[in-house]
User: What shape does this take?
Amino acid sequence: MSYRLGINLGFAINKYIEPEVWTRIVRKDLGLKYVQFVADLLNPFWPKDYIADQIKRIKAAAGEYGIVIESLFTSSFTRVNHFMNPDAEARKFWLDWFKRFLDIGSELGAKNAGSHFGIMTFDTYNNEDKRKFILDEGVKAWQELSFYAKEKGYDCLIFEPMSVPREMANTVEETLELLDRVNARCGVPLRVCLDVGHAPHPSQRDPYTWIERLAALSPVIHLQQTVLNKSNHAPFTAEHNSSGIITREKVMEAVKKAGCTGALFAFEISHREHWDTDFRIIQDLKESAAYFRPLIPE
Assistant: This one.
């Protein structure tokens, strides 16, 4: 086990989608080796022949630059209800979607994969009976997926605590409860994809408390700069670090205090389409990597 510095490929969506381009950026510009691949770059709903061709292209580019695709995750366009969709048929085809997603990751060499736990509609969340039913459905779906993941050689599945109650895991306690429920019957265990900027509940706004309590259960930890009461997904540049609450020293101190001895620390940094930011994406990511590299050299 070790601490490894890498990046979530959400930064590449609609900007650097070519495998030969994002692999070069990650390795040559950012000096990183490990990535968390995202579904928005290769969606399992797409035709199988196209997916097969893209997998060959990705593997070739990753091989050329020595990139390790360690993890798989959903992203911006796949932030949907999936396992908590009120439509039973939709839940079934999303379970099939995730199995296809694991197929893709298996070919790319990923060792863990996941998403948010599921999202309830307001109609579901506001009705106690519907809320209980759909939560049970979500647990069963993750359990079924965990046995498929075992067949495909994964070490674990992962899910990310989100921002509001209907998106699940907006407290540390709820996060732990979801883990316990799924892991009561699983193929591979469900773990956490912790985000250092996600401390959503009004009574749990200290991000370092989340790190101390959950880092040991997190094979992947998302890195972003933010301010109190928000999740900005900003880069670790001098400008943002001057007002941000995330520091490399405090993050790593909390991680070690948690008993976490190894994880992929993946930058999850977003640049909204704006004239002032669209042409500084690579530079911002380079500065972010340089900021954390003294404490996570691999």
